[in-house]
Amino acid sequence: MKETNQHGGLCEVLHWIGGKHRHSSCSATLINTNPETDERLSIVARGTAADVDAAVQSAANVQPGLAALGPSAREGILLRAAEILQRDRDAWAELLIQEIGSPITKAMMEIDIATRVLRANASMARRMTGRTYPSDVPGRMSIAIREPLGVVAGITPFNVPLIKSVKHSSLPLALGNSFVGLPSRRAPQIADRLATLYAEAGLPDGAFNLVYGLGAEIGPALIRHPLISAVSFTGSAAVGKQVHADCGQFQKRVTLELGGKNPIVILDDADLEKAIPAALKGGFIYQGQICMASSRVIVQRSIADAFIAAFVGAAKSLPMGDLRDRSTVIGPVIDDASRRRISATIADARRLGAEVLCGNQWTDNRLNPTVLGCVTEQMRIAREEIFGPVVTIETVETESDAIRLANSGPAMLSAAVFTRDVDRAFTLARSLNTGMVHLNDMTIQQEPEVPFGSDGEAGFGREGMETGVDDFTKWKWITLAGSPSHNKTQ
To answer: Which of 99, 110, 257, 394 is catalytic?
Structure first.
């Protein structure tokens, strides 16, 4: 990335290949804009299949040397990367504010989570442990060792670009794999800064590479490249299905995190003093543009009136001020296409009888916190991820109704349940069709150690430390035959 007067002072973002910035093999570019003002932020290289090939070849060339560095060296690089990230946290926060419209508190949270992920994954350089096995063959030693896969690809979204880029890259790097990333077109400067951060931390040139562009144009070239062994993808279900199909066709490992329609279930014995703040934060943090956001509240009818009155009143008061003000919760929706989609989805729900309890008013590129009542299963908004500051409320009579309604959607990445009854809580946790359930807490949770993800329309496989060892290494079985001569006394 460099400043240039050639483009009117805009930042120019170039591919990062082999430890150097490179122009595209063609002259095409993309324009990235500030989601708050729609002003132009940067001119971004628009990659081609040739650029993808150059990045993958660079990664493949350096990978054996990266694996040969040994665990202490790889661990040290990632720990230094974490230190540099914390050292420059204010600059990172400003970049997250400008490029993706992140309020400062969400930006700082993202930086801290990414730092924890780097530190945790650094330790995995020492976790490529093997096994010994008993053998029926007399004198045989039978062992299995782990080896790096080779080159791993990562495709990341705009909403948590630092967290996801770090998650997708740092674990493969710790295990001795090299990496090629295709970042969101909405967050190129953040990706570029991560590349230079890794370089400063001492990562060998070519171990981490980035190609920018449109996923529809160059994503298949990356996924199908014969030197790519595994793919990590975070994004929409529609694109995720194609990624999954390509990986299956070309026999590549794949992990998908696809988001979903996530419910927070409020049972009649819930502590509303805890449930309401959790529903607010889970539904509206980063203006609802988080894959784990609880955009769907399911509440038992006996407490519905009390919950709705308090929840709507609190939603109306959520601050929409300066993104650098720590009290601000609601920022801009990422782009015009997303704003039109959100408005159309709300209009569809209203046409079918939904009631606007608050919000549904735009202030420039920000949508006031919006809560819809009288929502039914027939409405798109009850089933589809909206990715905006919109929360729906559905009422049910019984606990069984709550389970059925929560499970009725096509995808559920995360869920939350509020109840004072532990047995009741675990019954619902086991009954909800999702890979992650949080009891008496919000749906948005993140820890580097856990198996993160869900199934079906919401994902495939799990992100995490232990699961990642299996995802990004391969087993090799080695035997050593015993020789009678070795046992003779000389």
So the answer is: 257
